[in-house]
Amino acid sequence: MISPKIKLIQYAGTNGILTLSPPCAKVHMALQFKGLEYETYNCKSPKDVKRFNARGRLPSLQVDGEVFVDSSDILTELDRIQPEPPLLPKDPKLRAQCLLLEDWVDEVLYFYGVYLRWVDIQGFAWLKQAVFGTLPAPLRLIVAPIVRRQVKSRLDGQGTGLKPLEVVQRELAERLQLLSDFLGEQTYFCGQAISRADLSLAASLDQTQILGLPPVLQIDLARWPNLQNWLQRVHGAVPAAAIKETGPF
Ligand SMILES: N[C@@H](CCC(=O)N[C@@H](CS)C(=O)NCC(=O)O)C(=O)O
């Protein structure tokens, strides 16, 4: 069988990190988990993004020229073109659990990270350098605050943007505790094999383990040892998209 030609269109990373976007990192991990070869293209501007997704969001994946958007739909497509190893459990209950958890990570947990990176002053100082640092100074000084205002306005609409930092941090810690309780002593979140729920959560948590982050963007996983061990297990099977090899795992 001829391998499909795959191109992942994403937001760039920095300093050896493949991407700073959790959903783009999730797709990297799924491609690597399946052993599929692919190229990566880093979008350069919102206009560039719209060439690959009219909705203006990344990741986008080209498979033999056909375009797929949204990380969850992309993973479904990857299971179709390369069924082994599967990203979904076969058991209907575990399968439902897996898709619900993936959705929760992508649509709820994700916004805590967006808040801490774009709204919090220290988080944004780090992100600004990482994302806009290579732009010439005049452009950087104009573009970064404009994008920040757009993101903040969307986050207000979603709800998380309206909360003070202390509430966001408390809720995030409570949700990590829930994840830790959910996982318990299980090997992976939805059974004995890695699933797309594991990839989605790992892709998000990896972003908090990048070296040199300000404290507000770090999560100390030692507070939840079973999550820390689980992340290590996931990365025993799939390399992280967000951590340099010299990182903590
Ligand atoms: N649920 C979508 C989220 C995609 C998404 O929001 N991606 C962000 C990057 S992390 C994006 O493209 N943001 C640009 C924007 O909102 O204008 C997925 O999983 O693909």
Give me the secondary-structure category: alpha+beta
CATH fold-level assignment of the largest domain: Glutathione S-transferase Yfyf (Class Pi), Chain A, domain 2
- What gyration radius follows from the Cα positions, in whole Å? 18 Å
Count structural domains: 2
Largest sheet: 4 strands, mixed
* Count, helices: 9
- The string of secondary-structure elements, in order, is EHEHEEHHHHHHH
Mean pLDDT: 94
CATH architecture of the largest domain: Up-down Bundle
Low-confidence stretches: 244-249
**Count of DSSP strands:** 4
Task: Bin the helical content.
Answer: 40-55%
Net shape: globular
- Ligands and ions found: glutathione
Task: Please sum up the structure shown.
This protein is an alpha+beta fold and 249 residues long. 54% of the residues lie in helices and 7% in strands.
Describe what you observe in this structure.
- With 249 residues, this protein is of the alpha+beta class.
- It folds into two domains: 8-81, 3-Layer(aba) Sandwich (Glutaredoxin), CATH 3.40.30.10; 92-237, Glutathione S-transferase Yfyf (Class Pi), Chain A, domain 2.
- It has nine helices and four strands, in the order βαβαββααααααα.
- Strands 2-1-3-4 form a four-stranded mixed β-sheet, with helices on one face.
- Helix 1 (22-33) runs parallel beside helix 3 and helix 4 packs parallel to helix 8 (196-206).
- The model is unreliable at 244-249 (pLDDT under 50).
- Residues 11, 21, 23, 56-59, 70-72, 106 line the site of glutathione (GSH).
Which features would summarize this protein structure in a list?
4 strands, alpha+beta, 9 helices, globular, binds glutathione, 249 residues, Glutaredoxin, Glutathione S-transferase Yfyf (Class Pi), Chain A, domain 2, four-stranded mixed sheet, 54% helix
